[in-house]
Amino acid sequence: MNKQDLISVVAEKAELPKAKTGEVIDAVFEAVTAALKNSHEVRLVGFGTFSTSKRKAGTGRNPRTGEEIEIPATTSVRFKPGKALKDSVN
Fold it and tell me: What is the DSSP letter of 38?
């Protein structure tokens, strides 16, 4: 399912125009992104939790040349599905 499919399904279920539904979905994505940028968790009860995780810098090895390379520290996004979501998929 892509974004347009999601908009179509939500618009049909909520009986809203697709244009307005697209704006609402964009606003939700922006709110989640802003919260994660500020290192806040986003908990959607029954669905799951979005959070950030920091990975320390380290050294790695280029498998082709064997040369050591520096791997910079990064922040990644994690998603932990909620119980209701897990149960509905199984």
Answer: T
How far apart CA 62 and CA 32 sit, in angstroms, is: 36
Q: Between vectors from CA 67 to CA 65 and to CA 68, what angle results, nearest 5°?
A: 150
Per-residue pLDDT of the chain (90 residues; tens, 9 = 90+): 999 999 999 999 999 999 999 999 999 999 999 999 999 999 999 999 999 999 999 999 999 999 999 999 999 999 999 999 999 998
Whether pTM exceeds 0.70: yes
Q: Are 39 and 77 within 8 A, CB to CB?
A: no
Beta strand pairing call for 74-81 and 58-61: unpaired
Q: Decide the pairing of beta strands 42-44 and 74-81.
A: unpaired
- Return the structure tokens found at 40: 């806040």
